[in-house]
Amino acid sequence: MSSYFEAMRPPLGPNSLRLPEVKWGTTTVGVACKGGVVFATDTRVVQGETFIAHKTGKKVQKIDEHAAMTTAGGVADAQALLDVLRYQSKIFWLERGTRMPVRSISSVASLVLFRNRMAPMAVQALIGGLDLHGPELYQIDPYGGATKEELVSTGSGSPVALGFLEANIKRDMVPEEVVPLAVKAVLTAMNRDTATGNDFDVVVIDSKGYRELSAGERGVIAERIAHL
User: Fold this and answer.
1) Lower CB density within 10 Å: C or N end of the chain?
2) Are 99 and 126 in contact (CB under 8 A)?
3) β-bridge mates for residue 130, sequence order
4) Domain containing residue 183
5) Which amino acids are annotated catalytic?
């Protein structure tokens, strides 16, 4: 006899762990370099396949003074995951008096997503920052899989952005050298991906902590990279 709980149980089979048909678009990039981590994203928020729901969406968020997360996917799921990471990072600081390692933050994100694997959260995140282990950058998939990266891109424009990054980023670069290249990667994706566009945001995490570039600083960078 079937029960309410059996009716609610996800069906087993080859398609039982398939992600829901959610469509989104964006481009985020992350680079772990000498002395820090650089994130750059576009700001276009797409609803469905063609409607631009927001032109100034914030896709890179501060977790703590030494760590940040970029998001591609569903906004609500990304916000829920971010809240968990901020809470855990703050508790770690209050209990131990030191910042939560970036690898531990990524592990928490991985566990949250893995525990929801039967109803996957539609979010692909980049988590990075600078701690006692140095600059670290992780990519987290919707099922909780985590990989450590040196440079990475997510979202619908990621194939274009990643190709640009791999062709131009060098291992010994410092954040000041990486920033214009990360922005150029996002702008290149804008030229080929209709779901990526409007403007860009940049965050640098180095020995001075988390810093988001101002509109003026972004304008200067845009002028510089026009000649790259």
Assistant:
1) N
2) no
3) 135
4) 21-225
5) 26
Task: Output the six-digit token pair for 166.
Answer: 């791999």
Burial of 149 (0-12, 13-18, 19+ CB in 10 A): middle
Ordered alpha helix ranges (H), the chain? 4-8, 75-96, 102-115, 158-168, 175-192, 215-225
How many domains are there within the chain? 1
Q: How far is CA 191 from CA 18, 195, 196, 198, in A?
A: 31, 10, 8, 11
The answer for residues whose C-beta is within 8 angstroms of residue 216's C-beta and 6 or more apart is none
**pTM of the model as a whole:** 0.88
CATH code assigned at 193 = 3.60.20.10
Q: Are 122 and 77 in contact (CB under 8 A)?
A: yes
Task: Tell whether 12 is covered by a domain.
Answer: no
